[in-house]
Amino acid sequence: MSVQERTYIMVKPDGVQRSLVGEIISRFEKRGFKLIALKLVHATPEHLEKHYADLKGKAFFPGLIKYMASGPVVAMVWQGLDAVKTGRVMLGATNPLASNPGTIRGDYALAVGRNICHGSDAVESAEKEIALWFPEGVVQYTNSQESWVFEL
Ligand code: GDP
Ligand code: MG
């Protein structure tokens, strides 16, 4: 856990179509995380197969790739204390039916195959996903609120 920890957060095609981009960004901003990379991408199935390589072989894998390639996604990197674990808590459980109200999926989604957002599940996978989606690198800058958000 560190204040420099980074996580890869993505608004999936259904989140973009349902106009939830601003809402999802807003939750991470207000929580105190720092946005260090952001772009709208219509990813290819090949790229998405790399992102979800761990799930290859699952029965839902072809449907997952088709869903994720069906429209643009918003790819983001957020930085801050315990960003990976806290990001997952903010997203809620994978299946929105099990996600608590107050979480993004618990407030805006119903079906596991249309759960509107992605968040890295470990620091190691976050770093892999950041490299995959942002080969150009992220943006380094100082956020003037940092000393009010963290005990620096
Ligand atoms: P996540 O880390 O919470 O996103 O969950 P996983 O890494 O286990 O799965 C990746 C994504 O695949 C999920 O967010 C869902 O969109 C989808 N997915 C996972 N399990 C299922 C399933 O049983 N059925 C369907 N249709 N999609 C699933
Ligand atoms: Mg996952």
The molecules bound to the chains, other than polymers, are:
guanosine-5'-diphosphate, magnesium ion
CATH topology: Alpha-Beta Plaits
Q: Which structural class do you get from the secondary structure elements?
A: alpha+beta
- Estimate what percentage of residues fall within beta strands: 15-25%
End-to-end CA span = 14 Å
How is the biggest beta sheet arranged? Answer: 4 strands, antiparallel
Mean pLDDT: 97
Spatial ordering of strands, largest sheet: 2-3-1-4
Shape: globular
CATH class: Alpha Beta
CATH superfamily: Nucleoside diphosphate kinase-like domain
How would you spell out the order of helices and strands? Answer: EHHEHHEHHEHH
Secondary structure: number of strands:
4
What features would you describe in this structure?
It is a single chain. The protein is of the alpha+beta class and 152 residues long. The protein has one domain: Alpha-Beta Plaits (2-Layer Sandwich). The protein is built from 8 helices and 4 strands. The longest helix has 11 residues, at 21-31. It is globular, with a radius of gyration of 15 Å. The chain starts with 5 loop residues before the first strand and ends with a helix. Guanosine-5'-diphosphate (GDP) is lined by residues 55, 60, 63-64, 94, 112-113, 115, 118, 121. Its EC number is 2.7.4.6. Belongs to the NDK family. Its cofactor is Mg(2+). Keywords: ATP-binding, Kinase, Nucleotide-binding, Transferase.
